[in-house]
Amino acid sequence: MVARQDLTSDPRLQDALLQARRGTAFFARKLNELSDDELDGDSLLPGWTRRHVAAHVGYNARAIARLVEWAATGVETPMYPSPQARNQEIDFGATLSPIALRNLFDHSSVHLNVEWRDLPDASWSNHVKTAQGRTVPASETVWMRTREVWLHAVDLNNGAGFNDIPAPILERLLDDITAAWKTRGTDNGLVIAPRGSERGFGDVSNPDAATITGTLAEITAWAAGRSGIDATLPAPVWI
Ligand code: ZN
Fold this sequence. Notes:
This protein is mainly alpha-helical and 239 residues long. The protein is built from 7 helices and 5 strands, in the order H-H-H-H-E-E-H-H-E-E-E-H.
């Protein structure tokens, strides 16, 4: 018998799943607001049309579902065979008919949701590997997807903004982005201090650090490479 509710009884995980589902619903809403012709228009990402964004978000759900299946079965199934294969798949997906593209998003989202729903408590701590090679518990897949759907809803470039993204998600995004800067060694001398937030992000232990401030939404948009607060401080595009 198939469960109709999440098998996990962990309230934190249930809450995280709710955020992922809200983000998925938000992306679906923005995608549905676009006419078939408008799918050909530019996204916010360099070189990508809205079709590329929709295809990527669909294939990303499939890739994350492979990680959840890995956690459930112990059979290693990576997100993508290679970075090249990932990119080729997106380019291919962008050529699909509008109905096929919309079906890709809908079906892959439902499939991922079923994989999450049916994963028993004991399997959520099983380790899987992300496309970047990080080993993470299966529970991390929920955040991985949450980040994608909210951010790429903005990238559809039809009215969604960082103001639409819940504050806890923006803060966690800032944590991810500044951690990536630290890994690359590009966070030197920069602290991000959103107005109204109790903590800073980035190079916080450096007393000589320059501080960038703005609303949480503005500053996260900038850090994610989606808007210019200060063009002299380029932020890499986060996809
Ligand atoms: Zn992405």
